[in-house]
Amino acid sequence: MRLRSSKGENIRERTFRFGVRIVKMVNRLPRTTAGFALGSQVIRSGTAIGANVEEADAAESKDDFIHKMKIALKEAQETRYWLRIIIESEMLIDEETKALLKECDEIVRILHTIITNTIVKMSQ
């Protein structure tokens, strides 16, 4: 199954690039207790999005595909939460971090649409 966003971009590549950007952002967090804790959280969830999309692309069935995409969606929602904490706490408030939050919002919407459309197609 070829996963594409509404813009025609491959969602596998998009979530991979997002994960790389998360890694780079985490490396810029302050070396404080809070920085380490938040960095650990956001790096786990932010890189797990793409890993689960990869697994979904190799799913054994439509149900397996939906299950893995739902996990990717949950990870994206968690990542959005951690990014909001990082920005609101003024740990990092630069343009790249704000752009990551925007990209995460878009990924959440794309994954939700993919899941919804797959469920609709299965019920027809």
Outline the structure in words.
By secondary structure, the chain is mainly alpha-helical. It has one domain: de novo design (two linked rop proteins), CATH 1.20.1440. Helix content is 78%, strand content 0%.
CATH class: Mainly Alpha
Distance between the termini: 18 Å
The percentage helix is: over 70%
Which class do the helix and strand fractions yield?
mainly alpha
CATH level 3 topology: de novo design (two linked rop proteins)
Can you summarize the main beta sheet?
Answer: none
> How many domain modules?
1
Low-confidence stretches: none
What's the Cα radius of gyration?
A: 15 Å
Q: How would you describe the shape?
A: elongated
Give the CATH architecture.
Answer: Up-down Bundle
Number of helices: 4
Lay out the secondary structure.
Elements: H1 11-26, H2 33-57, H3 62-88, H4 95-123
Helix pairs in contact: 1-2, 1-4, 2-3, 3-4
Essential attributes:
single chain, 124 residues, mainly alpha, de novo design (two linked rop proteins), 4 helices, 0% strand
Describe the structure concisely for a colleague.
This protein is mainly α and 124 residues long. The chain has helices spanning 11-26, 33-57, 62-88, 95-123.
